TrEMBL record:
Spans traversing the lipid bilayer: 376-398
SUPFAM superfamilies reported for this sequence: Immunoglobulin, SRCR-like
GO cellular component: membrane
Superkingdom of the source species: Eukaryota
Domain SRCR, first and last residues per copy: 1-60, 65-165, 168-223
Lineage of producing organism: Eukaryota, Metazoa, Chordata, Craniata, Vertebrata
UniProt-listed Pfam families: SRCR (PF00530)
Region entry Disordered, spans: 420-465
Chief location bin: secreted
Record localization: Secreted
Protein name: Deleted in malignant brain tumors 1 protein Hensin
Basic and acidic residues composition bias: residue spans: 440-465
Keyword Glycoprotein: yes
Keywords of the record: Disulfide bond, Glycoprotein, Membrane, Repeat, Secreted, Signal, Transmembrane, Transmembrane helix
Length: 483
């Protein structure tokens, strides 16, 4: 907070009750932590308190300090905050010892130079300090000897400034708390390689620069310096005592920065099964649900996927993933006819405030078909199957009944008697039209002598050997099924 040392602590909502979340409870600090969150505590949001127990503190009151109009946060015009107003420091008696105190208070290493005469431009408003005289080991510029705050005999043309060693800086970002990490060593600035670079490293950098906690730690030269883009050419001239000879201008060379990006992929994903396929054309039933997935391999995280339809952006989503593979899913919960067309995926990333886009993926043609057509076809097929099944069952029943009702058994009398007809079912009258009252005639004792003689004559007309009599009897007694 840049408020100096703690003078007193206050309890029981001394400065009034808060109204938002109680984040910390049972905080135990050693006094050497860089942040309150680094102290031991239950965990964010874990507590058994209410706002009647809100804690407070009283600091020594060292005002905030800042450097304005410099090349980075560790160089510029010195300004302090007093009575709610920012004001400058007069350069009377301003030297390297004073600058040393400012650089240390800003956590900017050691002082390189102490600037005067409005070197970083003239400020506005009050001049809070004048005739500052520091030993060099003070923790705040207000601890140095100086007249009363606001008492001076200067103008803003005498505003003081400093240039600190700034052992660490961020370059090419959108502000002083983002950019490419650079370190000052042996009078020269250099970069940091991204091998093993991760969030914990970013936290250290942000804390050292007074920028809070790291929210991301980009790699692969994410913060590119585009300041040298443009057209370049060589010009030669020769100066003589009385004139200057200009030679023709050389060829123009265009310097540009190219960000190489892979071509993304476009696929379809089934919402009901883990099925991913990548066709060129697909037909989708009206009212159904499916997903279009965009994916790419890229060394530039934090990008966006654009789903375009016929060269017009249909939807946009933030890419998510890990390492070098990123995806985004676009859902079509209820697809309609206006959704059909040619779709492509484009991956875009913002680098140093400039947007770079990949070339579009291959085209995916989506056609929407009517839901009723498929239903009719399905209904016809089901109807045909049911009809065939009913016909099969009817034929089977008819076949069984016809075989059972129409059977008539014949027996041949071994003595050449008349054929006996036996109807196994009384209903046979319906099949052959015969009267069931007709009885089968059988040979018995009532037969006349003429019949016996005729039978004997028929038997005598055929020679029978004893060797085939049994076979003949079995054959003649075997039932014959007449259909």
């Amino acid at each position: 907070m840049n408020c100096g040392a703690a003078i007193a602590v206050r309890y029981k909502a001394f400065f009034g009750r808060g109204s938002d979340q109680v984040w910390l409870d049972d905080v135990e600090c050693t006094g050497h932590e860089k942040s309150l969150s680094d102290c031991l505590h239950r965990g964010f949001g874990e507590h058994d308190c209410d706002h009647n127990e809100d804690a407070g503190i009283i600091c020594s009151g060292v005002p905030p300090l800042r450097l304005v109009n410099g090349t980075n946060r560790c160089s510029g015009r010195v300004e302090i905050l007093h009575d709610g107003q920012w004001g400058t420091v007069c350069d009377d008696e301003w030297d390297i010892k004073d600058a040393e105190v400012v650089c240390r208070a800003m956590d900017c290493g050691t002082a390189q130079t102490a600037k005067s005469s409005g070197f970083f431009g003239q400020g506005n408003g009050d001049i809070w300090l004048d005739d500052v005289d520091c030993i060099g080991n003070e923790t705040s510029i207000l601890h140095c000897r100086h007249p009363t705050l606001g008492e001076n005999n200067c103008g803003h043309s005498e505003d003081a400034g400093v240039v600190c060693s700034a052992q660490l800086r961020l370059v090419g970002g959108s502000g002083q708390c983002s950019g490419r990490v650079e370190i000052h060593h042996k009078g020269q600035w250099g970069t940091v390689c991204d091998d093993e670079w991760e969030m914990t490293n970013g936290d250290v950098v942000c804390r050292q620069l007074g920028c809070g906690h790291a929210v991301s730690a980009p790699t692969s030269a994410h913060f590119v310096d585009f300041g040298h883009k443009g057209s370049y050419f060589c010009e030669y001239q020769k100066k003589l005592p009385s004139q200057v000879i200009y030679y023709p201008q050389g060829n123009v060379a265009e310097l540009s920065v190219i960000v190489k990006m892979e071509v993304p992929s476009i696929t379809l994903t089934s919402p009901h099964a883990m099925v991913i396929y990548s066709p060129d054309k697909v037909s989708v039933t009206q009212g159904s649900t499916f997903f279009v997935t965009c994916s790419t391999h890229s060394s530039y995280p934090g990008g966006l996927f654009y789903l375009t339809k016929s060269n017009t952006t249909a939807d946009m989503k933030t890419a998510f993933g890990h390492s070098v593979f990123f995806v985004a899913n676009f859902e079509f919960p209820v697809i309609e006819y206006e959704h059909q067309g040619e779709y492509t995926c484009v991956y875009a990333v913002n680098i140093s405030s400039l947007t770079f886009r990949s070339v579009p993926s291959k085209k995916l043609q989506i056609t929407v078909v009517a839901a009723s057509s498929s239903s009719v076809v399905l209904g016809v097929l089901i109807g045909i199957v049911v009809l065939l099944l009913m016909l099969g069952i009817g034929y089977f029943i008819w076949r069984r009944r016809w075989q059972g009702v129409g059977a008539m058994v014949q027996f041949s009398n071994t003595f050449g008697g008349q054929i006996k007809h036996d109807e196994e079912d009384r209903n046979n009258k319906m099949f052959n039209g015969r009267d069931p009252s007709v009885q089968v005639k059988e040979h018995g004792h009532s037969s006349g002598l003429e019949d016996k003689k005729a039978d004997a004559d028929r038997d005598n007309t055929v020679e029978r050997g004893p060797e085939d009599l049994a076979g003949r009897v079995c054959y003649e007694l075997e039932p014959l099924v007449v259909t």
